[in-house]
Amino acid sequence: MLRILLIGALSIGIAGTAYWGYREHQQKNAILIHAENNYQRAFHDLTYQIDLLHDQIGTTLAMNSRQSLSPALAEVWRLASEAHATVGQLPLSLLPFNKTEEFLSNIGSFSYRAAIRDLDKQPLNAEEYKTLQQLYKKSADIQQELRNVQHLVLENNLRWMDVELALATNNRPNDNTIIDGFKTVEKNVQSYNETDFGPSFTSIEKRTKGFEHISGKKITKEEAKQIAKMFLGLKGNEDIQVVHSGEGASDAFYSVTIKHPKTKSETYMDITEKGGYPIWVIENRPVNKQNISLNEATMRGLQFLKQHKFNNFELYESTQYDHVAVLTFVTAKDGVRIYPESIKMKIALDDGNIIGFSARDYLSAKRERKIPKPSISIEQARKKMNPNVTIMEERKAIIMNNMNQEVLCYEFLGTLGDDTYRIFINAQNGMEEKVEKLQNPEPIYGEI
Amino acid sequence: MRKWFICLFLIFSFSYTSQVHAFSKQVIQRGAVGDDVIELQARLQYLGFYRGKIDGVFGWRTYWALRKFQYKFKLPVDGLAGETTKQKLVRASKYYKSFVYNNLRKGNTFTHYGGVPLSKQVKARKTKKQATAAKAINTRANSKQMAVKRVKSAAVNVPNGFSQNDIQLMANAVHGEARGEPYIGQVAVAAVILNRINSPSFPNTVAGVIFEPGAFTAVADGQIWLTPNETSRKAVLDALNGWDPSSGALYYFNPHTATNGWIWSRPQIKRIGKHIFCK
User: Where is the Sporulation protein YpeB PepSY1 and PepSY2 domain (chain A) (predicted)?
Assistant: First the structure.
């Protein structure tokens, strides 16, 4: 009797486990299919978008009038950015696929710049036309290759999940069609670099910020230590370690780590090898109360800059996060603010000490510059503004414009409705170089 | 329930008294947060210069209101609330501190204009939480403990172009990826996310970069959904404010666990903690 009961209970148990296992399996499959479908959609979308992109570039080649060319170029821009976003949804980040993404993004910015320009006054020149033709050819290659991969995927029922697995575990089978296909695409694009976008484009491209303009002799590890001691006002009993940067750094630098024996807190600092300039400093320590005001912190920041021979700085932005002040200073020369030359500082509001410093922007932009004479007066510039904006403050400033060139501008701070705007009018030609809506404090959501 | 509320507000509006003493000694400057800013906004609103929300953050609207006040009262117009400005302001206006703080605490929509009964300037927030909050306040009122406790501001400063939610999402990613790392390593991971957003080879949004399939292991294995600590949030803020310890790196990897051979071919910039950062 007992045995029968036991057997019964066990078999119910086994059946239950089997059913549970089956359900688990089913659920896992459902999720896998769901993920797979997402990848499939992104992939097929991408091929379709590249198709459209190719066709659209083709159409712009045949166009002549501004009325049709501008919208067509805008369409190229839209398609390129859509394709760029789609690539980001595919599990390719471990595959060298950057060139293709870069290519798409470059097509986007090229067509955008051409689309917003007044093509009646400044039609596409021969070079840009050639660029378009080349883009047309390149996109044809990509399209071909992707179509080919797509065909194989559909025919052999290839799954993206396998690609992901292969990429993650690194034992990729040599005949993974998808990976090979995308590698071919990448190789294809690689032969086509930035310079093919024409000479005007390279200057437009965001350059990685290097410190080309700084001067001075190369310093040693020991000198770096001394500079850190001076700059941070150390007592001398700290544990200091210095490491040289790797060969991938665009400008060689020393990384200094300072351990304070008493407080156990750490300060980190990078110093350029050439000239020994401090690039940035961060001290990590808790700041739990406020004893000094933001205003006093600003004064201390300015004083610190003066002490360390950073001259002609004035406050540009000040913000308080909990008990820490984050300040941005810019240089001013003859009443002209030079925005690219900025230094950021973090000051603890408990004892007023500097706990952060960043001169990266300053070091990459600093140089002797002659400030040009403006060709238009401030009254003329004022007339270029939107009449609905109430002007509250005005001054002259040098900024980097969209083309990554330094331009002299009249800067206006104005309000429209409840918002504040910073508007830059070019002091040479009266163009509206930049309009920024300034950030308002953000309300805290969902809290009583 | 409703009646109860109205009663409560009536009691409050009678019990509020304007305060004479005011402001701490600090010079208040744009970007500041805290009690002095709440008072500054309330007083400016009392005089009709400030029409925005009283939220305790010295933003642009408060700045222009202050300048307008300085101009009207023939003070030097510098947008700083210094000694003379504060004195003039205190003399010219009233400040119902407990009224303001009570409403801030409850998350009500309210204003603080002069010449309008306070009870008419509140629109209660209707949430479930409020019932409990009101109860708590009720007991407090009963026990006559009307002392004003420190109240959290209703808004915060955020780096230009980013919201608190972006910061939260990045803090999640940083915590999941680098919580065992030194602080600077966490800032560097946050900086890599930002460098990717600016790079043409990567998506252009915070979410796009973080959730790119295969880009971050913490996203792939779900560690991103661990609750981030305060350190990772601080690290993200530092990165957003412009600190980049990675020196422009786009990739990083842990040499002990990296399975992908390709990553070793990238030019390396520096090593922080367990991570090697590269171009």
Answer: 180-372
Q: Which residue has the tokens 């308080």?
A: A320
Strand B109-110, strand A419-426: pairing: unpaired
Q: What CATH number does residue B249 fall under?
A: 1.10.10.2520
Taking residues A436-445, report their average pLDDT.
79
Quick one: pLDDT at residue B190? 93
Query: What ipTM does this complex have?
Result: 0.83
Pairing of strands A432-437, A419-426: antiparallel
Indicate if A286 and A261 belong to the same structural domain: yes
Q: Is residue B8 situated within a structural domain?
A: yes
Residue A196, chain B, CB below 8 Å: the answer is no
Model pLDDT for residues A34-61, shown as the tens digit of each residue: 888 888 898 899 989 998 998 888 888 8
Output the six-digit token pair for A278.
């401090």
Q: Which residues of B touch A279 (CB under 8 A)?
A: 247
Q: Is A235 contained in some domain? A: yes
Contact residues for A215 (Cβ-Cβ < 8 A; gap 6+) = A274, A275
Asked if A13 is an interface residue toward chain B (Cβ–Cβ < 8 A), one would say no
Q: Do A385 and A354 lie in a common domain?
A: no
Q: Are residues B212 and B264 in the same domain?
A: yes
A29 belongs to a structural domain: yes
Provide the CATH number for the domain around residue B40. 1.10.101.10
Strand A278-284 to A313-321 pairing: unpaired
Is B188 a member of any domain? yes
Instruction: Flag whether pLDDT at A104 surpasses 50.
Output: yes
Going from the C-alpha of B110 to that of each of A406, B1, B32, B55, B239, the distances in angstroms are 46, 20, 21, 10, 35
Query: How many CA atoms lie less than 13 Å away from A206 in the CB half-sphere?
Result: 14
pLDDT tier at A345, thresholds 50, 70, 90 = very high
Confidence (pLDDT) at A174: 53
A266–B152 CB contact, under 8 Å: no
**For range A198-224, the mean pLDDT:** 68
Q: Which residues 312-371 on chain A approach chain B with CB closer than 8 angstroms? A: 317-321, 325-326, 344, 346, 356, 358, 360-361
Residue B104 inside a domain? The answer is: yes
Same domain, B92 and B190: no
| Confidence label for B174 from pLDDT (cuts 50, 70 and 90) | very high
- Which residues in chain A (199-258) have CB-CB distances under 8 A to chain B? 206, 208-209, 243, 245-250, 253, 255
Contact call for residues A289 and A370 (beta carbons, < 8 A): no
Classify residue A445: in a domain, yes or no.
no
A344 and A383 part of one domain: no
Residue of B152, B208, B270 lying closest to A245 (CB–CB): B270
pLDDT band for position B143 (cuts 50, 70, 90): very low
What CA–CA distances, in Å, run from A121 to A115, A117, A124? Answer: 13, 9, 10
A45 with A75, same domain: the answer is yes
CA A423 – CA A391 distance, rounded (Å)? 10
How many structural domains is chain A composed of?
A: 3
Same domain for B171 and B109: no
pTM value is 0.82
* Contact status, residue B187 vs residue B241, Cβ threshold 8 Å: no
CA-nearest of A57, A88, A87 to A75 is A57
Residue A206 makes CB contacts below 8 A (sequence gap 6+) with A404, B198
